[in-house]
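A common beginner's mistake is to predict each chain separately and then try to dock the pieces by hand. The better habit, illustrated here, is to supply every component at once so that their relative placement is modeled jointly.
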Amino acid sequence: MEVLEEIPSRVYRFGDKVADGNSKMKNLLGGKGANLAEMCAIGIPVPPGFTITTEVCTEYNELGKETVLKRIKKDVEKAVENIENIMGSTFGDIENPLLISVRSGARVSMPGMMDTVLNLGLNDEVVKGLAIKTNNERFAWDSYRRFIQMYGGVVLGMKPKSKDDIDPFEEIMEHLKEKRKIQLDTQFTIQDLKDLIYDFKDAVKKRTGHDFPTDPWQQLWGAIIAVFNSWNGGRAIYYRKMNGYPANWGTAVNVQAMVYGNMGENSGTGVCFTRDAGTGENVFNGEYLINAQGEDVVAGVRTPQQITKLGSKRWAKLAKIDEIERIEKYPSLEELMPIIYTQLHEYQGILEKHYLDMQDMEFTIQDGKLWILQTRNGKRTGAAMVKIAIDLLKEGSIEEKEALLRIEPNKLDELLHPVFDPVALKRVNIIAQGLPASPGAATGQIVFFADEASKFRNTILTRIETSPEDLEGMNLAKGILTARGGMTSHAAVVARGMGKCCISGAGALIIDYKNRTMTVDGKEYHEGDWISLNGSTGNIIEGKVATSEPELSGEFGEIMKLADKYATMKVRTNADSPKDAKVARNFGAKGIGLTRTEHMFFEVDRIKAMREMILADTVKGRRNALEDLLPMQRSDFEGIFEAMQGLPVTIRLLDPPLHEFVPHQLATQKELAEEMHISLQAVKNKVSELQEFNPMLGHRGCRLGNTYPEITEMQTRAIIEAALNLKEKGIEVKPEIMVPLVGTLNEFLEQEKIIRSTANKIFEEREDTIDYLVGTMIEIPRAALLADSIAKHADFFSFGTNDLTQLTFGYSRDDIGKFLPIYLEKGILTVDPFEVLDQEGVGQLVKMGTEKGRAVKPDLKVGICGEHGGEPSSVEFCYTTGMNYVSCSPFRVPIARLASAQAAIKGTL
Ligand code: PEP
Ligand code: MG
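With all components supplied together, the output reads:
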């Protein structure tokens, strides 16, 4: 690759097989800019242009417009000159004008979240030149009309702010259509377009107080600033938060020569993928429209045609269109423009080989010449992500470690959700079919507006088409259904990115927003009616459909196997019942890291005995009640041990405050008094006696076991007897008894004494023994500080990062909801510390606790059982801390297994 002599620092040029930047510079040039530079350098025909760096966006946010424009002015002027030289036309020239596009481009793709201006450089004079140059007057005036509309909306702030506001430009157009008794934009005459432009400019003057800018340079500076501003627009902020992208990344601005897909029947535009983004299947696919601009394909206004013949035939089958009609009305690009198709096919091959990943490309055919507008690693569903990684591995394109690094751990979550039960699916009433835009199963109640997506617990957002404004509602809905649009429509692309079930282009649906109805084959469905979507087949089903559990099979199973090959830190699960333990074991858990025994006490048949124990005034009374609880606990433990046979099981002694077990409502207090043959007053007295000002810091954890040692005795007995019972049956059991909420060494020693003496007593009674460990949770900062002295006695540590976070930040776990949203909004916190481990603060305690513990006991077993144990970045931190295992909820086990493998791979790279 040839490099231009003088590399500018704020503006990077590309064009005609030469580029200042390359694909490694994503942080500086944004994903789009870096790829445009790279594509150019490898010989792909890209319209020439330049990228203003993301750093300039940050400069703009800090220093403001004037300073920034001064800093980039010279470089931008030079870069425009470079485009002019390559294209052989001049920006602002009346006879041979160069028109340009101005687009955003952050380091990660944020589809539709920021602003774009096309056709920039037009004014009343230039438009005439364009008409002569292209010999297409209609095209020239239509481009000018589109430009004013877009510039007015994006740069001059005339976009409607809510769904109730009217777009001033649309209003003018609708008005003219009514007057002229026409329906489509394409029916406007050249004179109509000229009239529209006149009225548009008038509307701009009225709304902004200024004339529409006629100087192309003024237009360009305005558009650049507007793109920077869109980084801090509502949609972009929401998208950043949803994905955890920091605000200081900024967006780059890409300025490029315009090429036109709407110059007649020999022009067109489209989007294509090197593999199927929904399923991962290795088939080239995509959609295009003849005589159209890029946004027409994604806007879902016209139903696009398929690129390949195979895709076209598949589509026609779903759309119930016969072969004759297909060939006549909807031919594939392969059939319609075979030479262009061959070139496109060649470029997609080059690009996938170059980037070694599935590419999502945009292209335009201008008067018979193919231009590639952009390429990026395509967004895909969780299933496609896994299949593509495994396929690329099998094809020899990438290595095992790389295949694992290609998987986003959190995206595996999609594969762990229930699917429609195949038996239930046989009996359903399919009311219509659309395109299987994003696979999965969704059942919910119909809503027609994005801002009403949480009106019911489970909703299906049902729209004619979606737009970027609908993002939040799409995220909240269980599934998305659109009447228009193809596989690359906004709805389809965004849903796939979110891993949300989506059916698009279901042409049989007649959606009436005003009356909130959806009509299919004459039958009317209303808001609130239940429907189900099968995103894998495109079937729209009436009513609810039962679901069944997913399995770790096929490519998913292969990825997991590969993960275990590289992971050194184990993954256990937090499970309180034999059922959860089995689910987790099927998901590959290598033991249990936390069984919260209190959950067993809450079950209806046990709460009575528990209450009797709490209400008892004497040790004897308490022991009697505990006697009743013993067999129940023992059988629970037996079930869990059996499900986890051969693997370690950590059981934690009782933790929650006792007042959680007593009734607080009068009616239930009365019931309890009657059942226990005591007075209502006695119950009330006990309830108020147990009331605490700060239960999270109150009588819980080992404080319970130390004040009521008989509870620890009973629980130890249940654990050890269960273990011995299974041993008798030949089942291998590895119990680990865990003491919660230890803050001082003596708290632990006191509990350890009770546990060991109870166990010894049982060994004598049964004339048999079993190996077991006694360890502690490190969840109080003081325990982390004194970890060395505790480690002398404890067999293992398990970091309870839920409480450790609570106590380190001083944020109550139960009350953080009151201020967290505001903290996140203001950027005081960037993430919820109860979800993502605070490595900077809480992490120091984890590190210190581990190091201090291992300093006195080098082989001390250390794990984590707080919620963070299933969160990928926290898992990586645990790996770097040297933990033996992480423990998380059953459905996060595959995610943690993968994150553990990735951490190990990154650690050795
Ligand atoms: C913890 O505090 O991290 C923990 C696992 O215990 P719990 O959430 O039950 O308090
Ligand atoms: Mg805890």
